Amino acid sequence: MLLVTGGAGYIGSHVALELMRRGREVVVFDDLSRGHRDLVGKALFEEGDLKDLSRVRAVFGKYPIDGVLHFAAKSLVGESMAEPLGPPHGVSTPWGQILILTVCVHYYLYSLVALLTVL
Ligand SMILES: NC(=O)c1ccc[n+]([C@@H]2O[C@H](COP(=O)([O-])OP(=O)(O)OC[C@H]3O[C@@H](n4cnc5c(N)ncnc54)[C@H](O)[C@@H]3O)[C@@H](O)[C@H]2O)c1
């Protein structure tokens, strides 16, 4: 099973659809801050914030995930230029990127594809 973070967004939703078209099982993880539930289609859906470590670990515990395609991001260019490290109080995009990498390592998961223009 593949986990698609940000799978309710523009790129992630298309990738999730294509993976399912190719017969892969997909679970989408998205906080819907920028995405749309309707775009998830028939994929399994888990709503949550990537920066919530316990929530992410719960999803990894629930499904037999063997690969991650990581698209969750706050991807507006102006926003990332104004606050490259994200808003204060730990609610930043880089923090989410670090956490997903940490969880992948914890689960000995070496299949990670990340599309990141916002770091
Ligand atoms: N759209 C493009 O043309 C393009 C081109 C190159 C690279 N990228 C990169 O690809 C990635 C995805 O871009 P997109 O256009 O699909 O953006 P998008 O905003 O449509 O999708 C991002 C998704 O991530 C979700 N998300 C945001 N923060 C989250 C969090 N903390 N926890 C869980 N979910 C969260 C949003 O709800 C949204 O559904 C970004 O890193 C972007 O910079 C996009």
H/E element sequence: EHEEHEHHE
Derived from helix and strand composition plus strand pairing, the structural class reads alpha/beta
> Strands across the major sheet, in which order?
3-2-1-4-5
What fraction of the residues are assigned to beta strands by DSSP? 15-25%
What is the mean pLDDT? 81
Q: Quote the distance from N terminus to C terminus.
A: 26 Å
Most strands sheet: 5 strands, parallel
Detail the poorly predicted runs: 88-92
Structural Rg: 13 Å
Apparent shape: globular
Tally the helices.
Answer: 4
User: Percent of residues in helical segments?
Assistant: 25-40%
The hetero molecules present are:
nicotinamide-adenine-dinucleotide
Give a count of the beta strands, DSSP E runs of length 2 or more: 5
Please describe what this structure looks like.
With 119 residues, the protein is an alpha/beta fold. The chain has helices at 10-21, 53-62, 77-82, 93-106; strands at residues 2-5, 26-30, 44-47, 67-70, 112-114. The chain is globular and about 40 Å long. Mean pLDDT is 81; it is low at 88-92. The site of nicotinamide-adenine-dinucleotide (NAD) has 25 residues, from α1.
Characteristic key phrases:
119 residues; single chain; 4 helices; five-stranded parallel beta sheet; 5 strands; binds nicotinamide-adenine-dinucleotide; alpha/beta; 35% helix
Q: Would you kindly provide a brief summary of this structure?
A:
With 119 residues, this protein is α/β, with parallel strands linked by helices.
